[in-house]
Amino acid sequence: AYTCKETAVVLPAFIAFETWLEQRRPQVTILTGLSILRGCLGQILIALCYLVARSFWLRIAGNATSDLVPISGFTHIGLVLQTFGRAIQIAFLPLTQKGQHGLVSLNAQGALQISSIYALTGAIALLVIVVLAVWARRRLPLLTWGCLIFLVSWLPTSNVVPTHLSCDLFERFLFLPSLGLALALLAIIPKVTVDRRIYRFAVLLLFPLLGFGAWRSYARSLDYADPHRYWVHEIRVNPLSAVAPVGLLSSRTSALPLTSALALLDQCHQNATARRQTAEAVRCAFDAAVYVADYSADLDKPTRTSAIEFFRTVTEDRPTVAALGSPIVTIRVD
Known about the structure:
The protein is mainly alpha-helical. It is 68% helix and 2% strand. The chain has 14 helices and 2 strands, in the order ααααβααβαααααααα. A two-stranded antiparallel sheet has the order 1-2. The chain is globular. The protein starts with 10 loop residues before the first helix and ends with a helix.
């Protein structure tokens, strides 16, 4: 599992849960915890070996925000809380579904900007979940396990170890945490539906919730069924994304006119430059040079070749975007 997907590092939590089930679901106490720890010790050792190996050969360091100022101190805490706030919003109120949630935002000095609303939401939600897990460990141990699995499954993509991605969160990051939510609901529902009136209200409430979820799932599946529709939707909800314009361009079944193609690549370049995403900005400029070479028959072959070779060189060297501004504009205009 670890060699297939990095989020498999949370596997020991599920082994611990299975061990707890085998012990006939006792109260979550220190003695129970020690017993469970013995049951999943082998899996924990495998996970630790995986993390050590990965720290040498596959470090978590995407190139999307590699030019940002170092994330540390209160900014790092704010980033973690903001990421959790967005996870809570997507889990409980998935109104705006998109490929990238929380695009990186920088101030004039190039420092990471944190959304105070999402950070506050994350802080409150984290406090509530921890308090709920502690309170329920003897009364509703299944609820405690649901809270723990939700938090542990979210941890690899929580930015506790900064992922250096171009956004805080992707929807797929909540696949595993959703299992924890399901366990928590499974623990709560029988307790709150003992009263017949509450039971009827819960059943009535279930229908509009199911209807809403079915509608959102169907609408989202239509986006994924058609690549062009997906990227049109992504640009609409994420106009500052550097990925969406290139995705829309590549999803076309027929070639775009040169001016339209360059407009999308220019949008990609500007969005990436604004976020200090050097590799993405240079790649868009390189793609623009390729389009110029393919569409402009009036350019002689040596000129086209030199333009493409220039962008290939700067892509490999990965200099700063600021140093590339002037030659990018010159070659694209020519």
